[in-house]
């Protein structure tokens, strides 16, 4: 993808996916207020987040304080998703000073679907019903070692209400689900996002993640998307680079201070894609 204007693609990503964000569940909403775009979930069960901001040195501290006040009023934890090119340049420092805790840094990677390698075999099952969502939740619980009730509820509602905006897939070993992932589709843009990839421990390192990426990329291309996007961790980045993905910038989830976390649940339930 060296022939592509990476700055131009990043600007398009910011405009279409972050500024133009859409609710990711039927009961969620997007607020655009005071230079901030935020996702507010309908039930407050995790996933509330600041997705984009247009701030400078004079407005950043008050914008951060305003979001803390807003979500504290709801009694909810939330995540501020900071990208490496966001302004002001010291926004991460300002978030830490306000009590946010940074999660590990990830890399925003993009593949041009006209050039990405798609030679891996697809997974065995596309999830379209409650039984498939049950298996997705089982994989996530085993792969990530945490409760997957929120993911189960959200995905089931999404498939029922708006199936054209999400594609969930499973890899099976016999009748046992061993890996799962999903793709978020953003109608009206050229971007599809790869999220939530996870493989149970004893099946890692066998090429399953590559197959999941290739399957979703094929599907995105068939649906007319130009790019697939991933927030990649250290384990997934080498696999993605071999497939033709390139880095555009970094992204770091900042978790709100403990005293704002009145509602059980974990922010950032989108979860980066990975093996």
From TrEMBL:
Residues 123-260 form the N-acetyltransferase domain. This is N-acetyltransferase domain-containing protein. Residues 251-264 have a biased composition (Low complexity). Residues 251-275 are annotated as: Disordered. Coiled coil: none annotated. Residues 265-275 have a biased composition (Gly residues). It holds the Pfam family Acetyltransf_1. GO terms for molecular function: acyltransferase activity, transferring groups other than amino-acyl groups.
């Amino acid at each position: 993808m060296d022939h592509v204007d990476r700055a131009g693609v990043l600007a398009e990503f910011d405009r279409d996916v972050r500024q133009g964000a859409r609710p990711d569940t039927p009961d969620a909403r997007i607020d655009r207020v005071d230079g901030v775009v935020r996702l507010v979930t309908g039930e407050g069960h995790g996933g509330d987040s600041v997705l984009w901001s247009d701030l400078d040195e004079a407005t950043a501290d008050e914008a951060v304080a305003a979001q803390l006040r807003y979500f504290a009023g709801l009694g909810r934890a939330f995540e501020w998703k900071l990208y490496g090119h966001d302004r002001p340049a010291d926004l991460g420092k300002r978030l830490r000073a306000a009590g946010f805790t940074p999660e590990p840094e990830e890399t925003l990677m993009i593949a041009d679907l006209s050039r990405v390698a798609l030679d891996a075999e697809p997974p065995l099952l596309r999830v379209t019903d409650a039984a498939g969502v049950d298996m997705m939740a089982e994989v996530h619980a085993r792969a990530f070692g945490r409760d997957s009730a929120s993911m189960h509820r959200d995905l089931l509602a999404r498939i029922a209400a708006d199936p054209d905006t999400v594609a969930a897939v499973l890899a099976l070993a016999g009748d046992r689900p061993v890996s799962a992932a999903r793709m978020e589709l953003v109608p009206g843009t050229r971007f599809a996002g790869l999220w939530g990839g996870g493989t149970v421990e004893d099946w890692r390192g066998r090429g399953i993640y590559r197959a999941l990426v290739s399957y979703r990329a094929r599907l995105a291309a068939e649906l007319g998307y130009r790019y697939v996007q991933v927030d990649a961790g250290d384990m997934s980045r080498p696999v993605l680079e071999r497939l033709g993905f390139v880095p555009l910038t970094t992204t770091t989830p900042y978790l709100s201070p403990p005293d704002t976390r009145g509602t059980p649940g974990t922010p950032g339930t989108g979860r980066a894609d990975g093996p």
